[in-house]
Amino acid sequence: MVKTYWGQFEEISKYNTHLNVVERLWTAWYAWMQNDVLATGIMSFMMHELVYFGRSLPWIFIDSLGFFKGYKIQSSKVPSLREQWDCAKFVLLSHFTVELPQIWLFHPMAQFFGLSTSVPFPSIWTMAYQIAIFFVLEDTWHYFSHRALHWGPLYKGIHKIHHQYSAPFGMAAEYASPIEVMILGFGTVGCPILWCAMTGDLHIFTMYIWIVLRLFQAIDAHSGYEFPWSLHHFLPFWAGADHHDLHHEKFVGNYSSSFRWWDYMLDTEYSPEAIKRRRQTKLAGDMKKGQ
C-alpha cells in the first residue's frame, strides 16, 4: 500500500522521536518522493517561487495603496499595477525557462561536491557562520560581475534589461536577461557549492536558509523605500535600498549587493557623502600640488 505523505510523516515520527518537527517533515518528504533529485528539485523551485513572490507581494500593496509614501526614495516614480504585472510575467517566464533547469541540476551537482541532505540538521551556529561567509563571498562576486556588466558592450547586450526601471521595485529584483541571471546567480549558488567542495561541510537546509535570506535582501534592496528602521542604520556597512536605488537612478556606482565596503574601497560609491568626499580629496590634492 502506497503511503500518503502524512502517513510517511507519522511513521517516521513514531521511530525518530529525537528529530524535531522540521527534520521529520524533511525526512518524510524524501522518503515519500523516493527520488532525491525530484524531491530536491520540486522543493527548491517551490521554495524559490513562494519566497520571491511572497516577499514581493507586500511591496506591491505598499506601492499600490500608497502606504509609507513619505519613505519612497523616488517619490515621483511609483510603479503602476500594469508595470508590476508585466514585470511579474517576465520574471515568471525566466524562472520556468532559465532557473528551473538549473535548479533541477542542483541536486546531482551538489551531491557530487558532498552536499548533505540527511538529518539531523547542522547546529544554528554552524548554519549562521556559513551563511555569513556566503554573504561575503556572494557580495564580492556580485560587485565585480555587476561592475563588469556596466562595461559598454556587456551593458547593452546583457544588463540593460535590468535597468529598464530607473526607480526599482521589489518584483524587479530578478528582472534581468537569462545571461545575467546565470552570471549573478552563480554568486548565490556557486559560492556555497565551492565552499562545500573545499570543506566537505554543507547541508542543503543551510543552503535553503541562505537563499531565502539572499532573496529577501535582493527584493528589499529593490523595494525603493528607505525607512528609519532600515538595516543600514544599525549596520553601517549594509547596503540596502538607498544604496541600490541610487544605482538604478544614476546608472553608475554602488555595484555591491549586500555590503558597502567594495564600493567604498574601490571608490565606486555613489552618494552625496561620497561625492563630497571625492571633492574634498581632489581639492586637497590640488592644494598640495600648488604648494
TrEMBL record:
A GO BP entry: lipid biosynthetic process
Give one Pfam family: FA_hydroxylase
Q: Where is the Fatty acid hydroxylase domain?
A: 132-268
GO terms for MF:
iron ion binding; oxidoreductase activity
Q: Which UniProt keywords apply?
A: Membrane, Transmembrane, Transmembrane helix
Chief localization: membrane
InterPro entries according to UniProt? Fatty_acid_hydroxylase, Sterol_Desaturase_Related
**GO CC annotation:** membrane
Say which domain of life the source belongs to: Eukaryota
Instruction: Report whether Transmembrane shows up as a keyword of the record.
Output: yes
Q: Does the keyword Transmembrane apply?
A: yes
Compartments reported by the entry: Membrane
PANTHER family membership:
STEROL DESATURASE
Stated name of the protein: C-4 sterol methyl oxidase
**Source organism of the structure:** Aspergillus indologenus CBS 114.80
